[in-house]
DNA sequence: TTGTCGGCCGATCGCCGACAA
DNA sequence: TTGTCGGCGATCGGCCGACAA
């Protein structure tokens, strides 16, 4: 995915090593996070000096969560290594300035995540990222087109209404919440890239990982 | 699952070998149906004489489709073997009479499978399997409780109405259709076992295997 | 500035008898 | 006997401004 979008979604604390830098690989730390068991005979807790041969910035195809795949080289050891998005204490790769790429993240409130309602867009986010509205027309409304990190297109009705006036996303929003399985506490990241295209990313609260809601089997009594 | 329920769902043509009988195992036929590749070095197309050591009657946990797991013994070869529900030309195991176990199957019509409507219960099915209604009360209605082959309980509102009168399942039915992903052309099997308990099974049309419906991402234009 | 609430209006769900195959 | 249809009432989704934090 786009590196700037990746960083906006991963958050300011996200770090990953530069390609070519030397890092220590600790199987212990890997095993604690990996879903498949890690067992490399002869490698003990001391750590293994490696060279970073590649870093790929990716987004989970199901959850949209961003992560980095960091490939390591060793004399007799080569393995893909999936890190979490926050890997502190490793050398930082920085680019020079944001260069017109802007992003804004908001933690979803209960009202945002209720499928009954829309999404309250903070004023700063609307004015800095969303296309400008024609405030002379009433209702003051437009359809915005956004792509997620996988390139899938979404549209939202963006309206400026209420007393006092505020920015809201209505039609299209609840469908997005449903599809992405968002809950209150998750964050949404709105971004505008250099071409002016809108992107949307997701940062989930740890509690919402892998949660699944099963429908009910037992209808209520319904005697006529 | 209950052997009689299994047979009612598999259909009259279903056959499986008796335990202890001798059968030939053809890797070719197995490989054509298996989802995982079958590769047994040294076994060629000639077939392998085996003894049936066990037959288990099962229902797929996702689709409710019934199948038989037939275990085979050979001098130096033992493997679980999953057959389809129809395995002709193998010895037939028969039990003596139905002994009070009754079943009725119906192919779902468009009206049955439309989530808008209910299910038209054929008169013979209602009178031979469903609990008797009190026809003196109006509306003539009851809630029936049914278990699927996995033991999951479902309830349906069973009403006798319309001109001319007919049996219908209404409340609860459309939820069942949704959960089981039934489409027109699939069959539903209603059964009553020796204890008078109601069971429900499913036989799917081949076309509906593994079909998945994805929701739409793009809401229609909705300018106010 | 923005989170939550109740009102309200329109769309949809799903129960109904009519009618014909 | 039963499949399909249009009608229609109840429910729900979701858009709205009011109001207060």
From TrEMBL, chains A, B:
Subcellular location: Nucleus
Top-rank taxon, per record: Eukaryota
TF-B3 domain: residues covered: 104-206
Subunit: Homodimers and heterodimers.
Protein family: Belongs to the ARF family.
Task of the protein: Auxin response factors (ARFs) are transcriptional factors that bind specifically to the DNA sequence 5'-TGTCTC-3' found in the auxin-responsive promoter elements (AuxREs).
Protein's name in the database: Auxin response factor
Parent-protein start and end of this portion: 6 to 229 of 643
């Amino acid at each position: 995915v786009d590196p700037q979008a990746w960083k906006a979604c991963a958050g300011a604390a996200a770090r990953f090593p530069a390609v070519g830098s030397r890092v220590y690989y600790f199987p212990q730390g890997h095993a604690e996070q990996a879903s498949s068991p890690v067992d490399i005979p002869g490698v003990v807790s001391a750590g293994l000096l490696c060279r970073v041969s590649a870093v790929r910035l990716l987004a989970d195809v199901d959850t949209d969560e961003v992560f980095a795949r960091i490939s390591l080289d060793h004399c007799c050891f080569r393995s893909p290594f999936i890190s979490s998005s926050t890997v502190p204490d490793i050398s930082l790769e920085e680019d020079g300035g944001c260069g017109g790429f802007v992003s804004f993240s908001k933690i979803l409130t209960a009202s945002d995540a209720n499928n009954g309602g829309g999404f309250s867009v903070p004023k700063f986010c609307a004015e800095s990222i969303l296309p400008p509205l024609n405030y002379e027309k009433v209702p003051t409304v437009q359809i915005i087109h956004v792509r997620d990190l996988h390139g899938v297109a979404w549209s939202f009705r963006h309206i400026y209404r209420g007393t006092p006036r505020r920015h809201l996303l209505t039609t299209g929003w609840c469908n997005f919440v449903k599809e992405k399985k968002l809950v209150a506490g998750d964050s949404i990241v709105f971004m505008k890239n250099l071409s002016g295209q809108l992107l949307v990313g997701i940062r989930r609260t740890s509690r919402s990982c892998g949660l699944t809601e099963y429908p009910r089997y037992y209808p209520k009594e319904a005697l006529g």
